[in-house]
Amino acid sequence: MGSGKILVAQGGGPTAVINQSLVGVALEARRFREVTRVYGAQFGVRGIVNEDFLDLTQETSNNLELVAATPASALGSTRDKPDLKYCEEIFKVLRAHEIEHFFYIGGNDSSDTVRIVSEQARAAGYPLRAIHIPKTIDNDLVGNDHTPGFPSAARFVAQAFAGANLDNASLPGVYVGVVMGRHAGFLTAASALGKKFPDDGPHLIYLPERVFSLDSFLADVKAMYEQHGRCVIAVSEGIHDASGEPIATLLAKEVERDAHGNVQLSGTGALADLLCDEIRAKLGIKRVRGDTFGYLQRSFIGCVSDVDQREAREVGEKAVQFAMWGGRDGSVAIRRTGFYSVDYDLLPLAAVAGKTRTMEDEFIAASGTDITDAFRLYLRPLLGSGMPDAFRLRPAPVPKILKR
Amino acid sequence: MGSGKILVAQGGGPTAVINQSLVGVALEARRFREVTRVYGAQFGVRGIVNEDFLDLTQETSNNLELVAATPASALGSTRDKPDLKYCEEIFKVLRAHEIEHFFYIGGNDSSDTVRIVSEQARAAGYPLRAIHIPKTIDNDLVGNDHTPGFPSAARFVAQAFAGANLDNASLPGVYVGVVMGRHAGFLTAASALGKKFPDDGPHLIYLPERVFSLDSFLADVKAMYEQHGRCVIAVSEGIHDASGEPIATLLAKEVERDAHGNVQLSGTGALADLLCDEIRAKLGIKRVRGDTFGYLQRSFIGCVSDVDQREAREVGEKAVQFAMWGGRDGSVAIRRTGFYSVDYDLLPLAAVAGKTRTMEDEFIAASGTDITDAFRLYLRPLLGSGMPDAFRLRPAPVPKILKR
Q1: Chain B residues touching A170 at Cβ < 8 A
Q2: Which residues does diphosphate bind (chains A, B) (predicted)?
Q3: Residue A167 pLDDT level (bands cut at 50, 70, 90)
Q4: B151-301+361-383 matches B5-148+304-352 in CATH topology
């Protein structure tokens, strides 16, 4: 080794804290005398192939701190999922620039990219240290207690449902909120942390970890509506029937809106609208409203967990330390060590790459439409400090005069 | 006068600060020796007719302060728009309970209810003091510089677009965000306050104050996409063609989704989805995403303007003072007196009731797809302190080696 050049990139969907990890790498790396340059690739792996690098060593620590506190990927991101050939291109560029350390901040796909590049470097006898830094609002990386980005998105979902519940209590009816997470229900489950009083919503939670049945759904909604005079429902965008068919697709067929064959169901408001249509039509409830949280839940500025911020910074710092002192490639992982405290491990890349974690059974209530206290205890510390709270007027009824 | 009984109620869509006004009334009223009881009607005017009153005099100031800081209507609200007969029922109950002061917190419709009840009391020779307290996220009450509730909703929209812009810069494409406001574009225009750098989005803003043309829209989007490699668009749910027909309805017809005759377009994600379909189909852009902010923009807990909180409290306090010392009924209004400071007037009810303010021409750019600096100066102080900010890495490109 000799060039002392480091490369860092960001991949996949942005989060509220992914820049903390970037800045963690940049600032920690500068503390090592063997590091001469910290490069940042623009727009993820695509920027590597195109040699679109920024020299982060020329940044001020002040601006780096400001960027760290800014959501979304400051370097730009990409949805490219490199195959072997793509990884060879990456490796070619790393070699040309004499990059000795490669840090890639991302989810499952990104860890797989790091794994392939790591193997190619080894096969070529090139001295590369390649480290994957975890990031995903879906919380679906195996080997991690949780992943940076998830706590802030979970906080948004919890706050959104706390507010939606208050709104729904003011003007009673049925409210359906559709939350991101195609395979893992963690983010949808976070809606339960918006609950304070026993009769607060969400009254029902539908996760991709359980099979969705429209008949059961309608029966559940009916029962809750009769009990509370209203019903707040959290639905994962990934709900599906027993065969794995997405519910959005099934409902769209049922109401015959699929005539053109090109009705897009993901990334749209369709699922919420279709479920609301069903409730209106089958249960005869008038005031039914649906929201799809969409990109707000991962991009909204000003809703961030301070715990998430600190940990996202730390996985970046630890990645550099593992790279410099660890002697092997890997994926940084968060391990919970107390209530509440964490430490960091370096897992083998093959242990994380391309695998998907879903919600553990202990987190899901037997009913299948609620979460357990175990999940509440798991998630609460991640949401951080200063969570907004909701209060009610206490009952002090005035005797009626005309209608006594 | 002699009973010393006051009644307060909340009407229409909830806001983040409507409970500040409620608590302003309750706490200020207790300072007057002639006030013996402060009643709160549950679920607006409907609660009056049903005599569903809470005795707020039995509340503690501590809990009232906590409720004040909680969004949505603590007393419950209603969408009922009372006619003459309904108002007679209201008046009957006020009389039976010897209510001498009636405060109704709400928008246009609520002010009209107060006006009718006020006239009925006068005609009956009953000594009632009736005051309307302004509230609406739409900012569409005439005679007001702005209305309580609007600043916090505007802050949500500005923060949402600041985040959406960062997300869109990370993964470039077209983003359409649909904002509430059927007739007034103030809330949609607030998206512009999420902009920091000259090339930030929203790059285009479509308001109900201007006629919407699909052809111009597509041409605008194409031009911006070519200039920036991406495009962030803010769209009011109320956009319409020259004849006043909502665009959502027109597009739904165009894509023949209206076969059942019952496709609901308001309160759904349909408009965003339809505009995205058009952009994909006509401009051939692949990454096109749409969000409908829905109820989040008025109900999200934890995104509130401290200026809005203070003013919402003050309109409640001033309402009581006007009632006790003013000698006439009316509608409390906010008047701007400095940059930035306000004072409060009591306008005649007829001057406010049932009228709708829309965005003044000086606030809309000549292009029709942007706002002016006058609007920026108007809105900025309302958003309050602690607005989150966005920062970028500075350019410091690394010379290419392979592709030089």
Answers
A1: 10, 14, 72-73, 76-77
A2: 13
A3: very high
A4: yes
The mean pLDDT of A232-244, rounded to a whole number, is: 96
Q: Would you state the pLDDT for residue A404?
A: 77
Q: What is the three-state SS of B312-339?
A: HHHHHHHHHHHHHHCCCCEEEEEEEEEC
Express each pLDDT in A182-212 by its tens digit.
899 999 999 999 999 999 999 999 999 999 9
CA-based nearest residue to A160, from A184, A135, A178, A139: A178
CB contacts of A256 in chain B (<8 Å) are: 259
- Its ipTM equals 0.95
CATH of B151-301+361-383, one of 3.90.550.10, 3.40.50.460, 3.30.565.10, 3.10.20.80: 3.40.50.460
From the options 1.25.40.10, 3.40.640.10, 3.30.470.20, 3.40.50.460, give the CATH code of A153-301+361-383.
Answer: 3.40.50.460
> Exposed (0-12), middle (13-18) or buried (19+): which is A197, by Cβ within 10 Å?
exposed
Are the C-beta atoms of A271 and A235 separated by less than 8 Å? yes
Helices (H) and strands (E) in chain A — how many of each? 14, 11
Tell me which residues of chain B, numbers 223 to 262, contact chain A at a CB-CB cutoff of 8 Å: 255-257, 259-260
Res A30 pLDDT > 50 = yes
pLDDT for the residue A248: 84
Tell me how far apart the alpha carbons of residues B175 and B158 are, in angstroms, rounded to a whole number: 15
Within its chain, how far is the Cα of B233 from the centroid?
Answer: 20
The fold of B5-148+304-352 is Rossmann fold (3.40.50)
Report how far residue A263's alpha carbon sits from residue A270's, in angstroms, rounded to the nearest whole number.
9
B294 lies within 8 A of chain A by CB? yes
CB–CB contact A171 B14 (8 Å): yes
Report pLDDT for A396: 95
Residues with Cβ within 8 Å of residue A333, at least 6 apart in sequence: A134, A141, A143, A144, A344, A345, A346, A347, A352
Judged against a pLDDT cut of 90, whether residue A2 lies above it is answered with no
User: pLDDT digit string (tens) for A241-292?
Assistant: 999 999 988 887 654 443 444 444 556 788 999 999 999 999 999 999 999 9
CATH 3.20.20.100 fits A5-148+303-352, yes or no: no
Q: Where are the alpha helices (DSSP H) in A247-305?
A: 247-254, 270-283, 296-299
Backbone angles phi, psi at A291, to 5 degrees: -125, 145
- Domain layout of chain B by residue ranges: 5-148+304-352, 151-301+361-383
Q: Which of B93, B169, B267 sits opposite A72 (nearest CB)?
A: B169
Known catalytic membership, residue A370: no
A-chain residues near B166 (CB < 8 A)? 14, 70-72, 299, 301
How far does CA A347 lie from the centroid of its chain?
A: 20
Pick from B55, B255, B295, B400 the residue to mutate for testing the A interface (most A CBs within 10 Å). Answer: B295
Q: Which of B14, B289, B387 sits opposite A267 (nearest CB)?
A: B289
Tokens 């699922």 label which residue?
A271
User: Is residue B138 part of an annotated ligand binding site?
Assistant: yes
Secondary structure class of B66 (helix, strand, coil): helix
Digit-coded pLDDT (tens) for B357-404? 999 999 999 999 999 999 999 999 999 999 999 999 999 999 999 987
d(CA B32, CA B27): 10
Q: Are the beta carbons of B394 and A14 separated by less than 8 Å?
A: no
CA-based nearest distance A211→chain B, Å: 25
| CA distance linking residue B29 with residue B361, whole number of Å | 40
How far CA B291 is from CA of A39, A47, A212, A270, in Å, comes to: 34, 28, 25, 11
The separation between the first and the last C-alpha atoms of chain A, rounded to the nearest angstrom, is 89
